[in-house]
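Spend some time on this chain, tokens included, and walk me through the fold:

. . .
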Amino acid sequence: MYPKGFDQFQQTRAETLRMAHEISAGECAARPAANQWSPGEILDHLILSEKLHRNSFAEMIALDRAGKRPVIYRTLSELDTSVFGFPKELLPLLSIPLMTFNMFVPAGVREYFVRNRILPANNPRASEPAPDRPLAGLIEDLEQSIRETEALFASNPDANYRRMRICHPMLGNNDVTGLIRILDFHERRHQDQFRGVVASLKAQGPVSTTLASPSR
């Protein structure tokens, strides 16, 4: 029913929900430092990131059902992920060099950098989290989001996910299985960030909800 690897993402989301249930409403909105996301912002980012992927899955499925080639090309203008703080307005200049570079980079290498916070990365604008979202609402949306993704796959049990591909200068050329792995590794990366932020907040004592520009 589900694409290969989706069961692992379901387990990863279950762990995210467990972690979310263990923090307080005050900790949810607090930042340990001015340049860091709050736990709540991390959770909101994960919700938005899954939605981006789910929309891509739905688009590829619709193309395949219509008898069209189920391949999507995303530009750096549409999905403006960047690293090293590279200005997003200049990202289109990197499209061709990155596409060429990714032709020679194994998927496992890209996935390693998605999973581990080795390179500083800037999230796409479409997954920019909102500050001060209530914890209860975030937990509800995390649960609802995974249910919607499950329902999408469950309603297309005969889909050939190996045929469906999405190409992006930064993330490379991936089928649905590859995208699910990226989504899973991305969430686990932010679980590590979440744990670190919560540990910092607990070490500081009483939480503060002062807002500032966050890092990723």
